[in-house]
Amino acid sequence: MKNLFLILIMLSSLVIISCNNHNEKLILSNPDDYLESFLKTRADLTGQEVVYWWKGYIYSFVPNQKDKAIMQFEGFNISRLEQTENGYLLLTKEAAFYEDLQTGKILNTWDNPFTEKTVEVVHIWNNPVNQAFEFPKEYKPYINKIFPSTDLGDNMSFNLNIFLDYPSPLTIQEFPLNSQNDTYEAAEMFQFFVNKDELLNKENKSINANLNWTRISPWMPFMEMGNTPGNLVFSCVGKKLNNGYQDLPVHIKQYVEKNKPEFSSAPDEYSEPNETSWTFFKKLHNNKQN
Q: How far is the C-alpha of 253 from the C-alpha of 2, rounded, in Å?
């Protein structure tokens, strides 16, 4: 009877330990836990590939004109997280497509309503779009400022507002039809929405997330708008796909596999510099010239 009693106590202790481990939570006031919570939202801590897909509209935003939707827009980012001695590297590619406003079909050409000219569409094929999450110790206390968040009760959002301002790869002198300014100036705003219980559970190495993305940018180079006043506003929503690349819409996978099948997987290794729509357009132009 005494031995049975001891066995029951031991079993009870194991159950308590198991429950405690199961309910172990991330503490967002801890910088390491906070970074981990962001990374498993954005990617997968085990290194498995993750795909974010988005869809929405592109609007013109022109002084003294009525603003309007001019295209649909749809794309994805495929990524893989790699742990290093100093943190993490996020290896990604992104592809996105300009689609007919009414039908949603991927465009080859576009009838520009501002110039009344037909132009060849250059879709977004950015490889790579890598990020290094390697922070010196003195930066650790400010992780929640680098990746700010909003508590929404049962849910939470990570909010990345990125304002870009640097010399444009496409100068007006060299690309008068394709460049609005010698400075590339744009803004990209991301919100990643997650369930807080899923986020804080340490057992979860990747969690479901919904995405809201807004971009304010110059005219795209292929539009041949030159230095015409105005901007584009991209407004899209999306999500992390449960089964990665396989869950993309069929027409997107077919287009990728026909044109650039290498975008069906994340990069194998970290490299720089990153590709942008502007640098990709310049490469295409230079290749045609040669």
A: 66
